[in-house]
Amino acid sequence: MKLSRIALVALLAVQLCGCGYNQLQQQDEQVKSAWSEVVNQYQRRADLVPNLVNVVKGAAATEQDILESVIEARAKATSIQATPELINDPQAFQQWQAAQGALGSALSRLMVVVERYPDLKSISQFQDLSAQREGTENRIAVARTRYIDAVQSFNVTARSFPTNLTAKLFGHDVKANFTVTNEQQISTAPVVDFGVTPAAPPATPGN
Q: Whole-model pTM?
């Protein structure tokens, strides 16, 4: 009886290996690891916001609207818990992604405002925070790319036959990924608008 059980366990193990169980587990761990790095980098950016806002506020107190929008966007972005379960919930992932996108846009607008204050850019603390922010944005881009690649590999395995049968049996649903719309939003440079109305074109002779 004992030998029969051992033989049955061995047979099941072989069958699981042959139908992609181990591959799914390995790719699932890769996705979790990539997601953890994404979260770390976004949190790093959020942690920079209070100090950055305070420095700008000291030199550009009249820009209250943009400063408040950054603070509000940060509050919304950090209010959503980016747990590993989030990537298995497309709706929750979309909400988190939108909140992070809003914070990124608010920060971009803030940096445009900074161009109006040359003295601010000469402050060493601002220079340091600005460099940290730029470095963090680069790290976010790298972390996102790794996550996108990891999720794509997992989802292909989870949807392909016969590993899709194993995925369904063990509850491995396809995971949420960053959307194309969001990628386009991130790659679009902020519009610089200093509130200057463009001059009217010269009148055409005869009009």
A: 0.77
CB neighbour list of residue 46: distance below 8 Å, 6 or more residues apart: 74, 77, 78, 103
Question: Position 91: which residue type?
Answer: Q
* CATH number, position 34: 1.20.1440.20
Hey, what are 24's tokens? 């799914």
* Angle, vertex CA 145, rays to CA 17 and CA 78, nearest 5: 105
Q: 3-state DSSP call for residue 174?
A: coil
Task: Give me the numbers of helices (H) and strands (E) for the chain, helices first please.
Answer: 8, 0
Dihedral sign, Cα of residue 99, residue 149, residue 19, residue 12: negative
pLDDT digits (tens, 9 = 90+) for 74-89: 999 999 999 888 999 9
Tens of pLDDT, residues 88-106: 999 999 999 999 999 999 9
| Residue-number span of the structural domain to which 108 is assigned | 23-187
Q: How far apart are CA 48 and CA 51, in angstroms?
A: 6
Q: Which residue has the tokens 């042959």?
A: 18
Q: Which of 160, 180, 176, 178 is nearest to 168 (CA)?
A: 160
